[in-house]
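Repro:
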Amino acid sequence: MASTMRSLITNHGKYVESFRVFLENSTEHQCMQEFIEKQLPGIISSIGNGKSTINILSVVGGAGEIDLLMLSKVRARYPGVTINNEVIEPSAEQIFSYKERVAKTSNLENIKFTWHKETAHEYESRMTAEKESKKWDFIHMIQMLYYVKDVAATIRYFHQLLQRQAKLLVILVSETSGWKTLWKKYGSRLPLNDLCFYITSADIKAMLDSAGLKHQLYELPSQMDITSCFMEGNTDGELLLDFLTETSEFSKTAPPELKQQIMEELRKPECSEERDGKVLFNNNLSAIVIEP
C-alpha cells in the first residue's frame, strides 16, 4: 500500500462531501424510508403498551432525518404519549443539523429531545461511571457499527438496556451487497485505520447467534449509480470512489495497479449491474431487529 493513501475518516470535510454525493446517487435513504413505512409499525407495535412515556435512544443519530421518520411512526402508534428521545452523536455539525431539522418540523409537541455529543463508547463509559442503568423501549443504531472498536461488546451493552417489550434495531450493509465483495478482496490494501471496520449483516448475525439473542432480519434492496466513477476527472465520480474505498483522494494517491483492479472489480456482477448505460453498485442494506 502506498504511504500516500489516507483514510477518508481522517479528513472530515472530504468525508462529509463524499457522503453527500453518495446519498445523492444512491437509494440509501429511500430504502430505509420504505422499511420504516412498511415494517417499522409492526416492529414497534408493543414497545409502549400501558406506558405514559416511551424512551427512545438513537445511537449516533446523524442529522436526524431517519430518526424523525421513525418518531412519526411511534407517535402514530401511541398518540398523546410523551416520547423521550435521546440522541448520542459525536459530531457537533450533525447535532446542529439535527436541531435545525427539529425546529422546522411540526407535530413534535409531545417529543422531548436531548442530545449527547459523544460516541457510543463514551456514552457507555459515562453511564458506567455514573452508575446509571436507564432502560429504553426502543434503541436504534443505523450505519454506525463500522466505527466502534468492539462490535459484539457494543451490541451486548445496549441490548442489556432494553425494557421487556423493547426492540433494538441495527441497520448496516448486507452480506449480499457489493460492499462485502469489495472489502473482502481489497480491504487489506486500503488505508483502514482503527476508526473504521468492515462488517456486514453476516458478522452481526454470527454474533447474535453465538450470544443466543433472538432476532429477525429484513433485506433492504438499494443501489448506487457509480457511472461517474468511470468518467476521468469527474468530481462526483472521484468523491464516490473516495467513499467506496474509504480513501481520501483515492484516484490521486492509489497505486495505479490497485486503482485499475478496483475499477475492474466495480464493474463485475458481484459488485454492480450495468443497465441502460449506467453502472449500478449493489448497496443492499439489512435491518436486524433484536429482541430483549
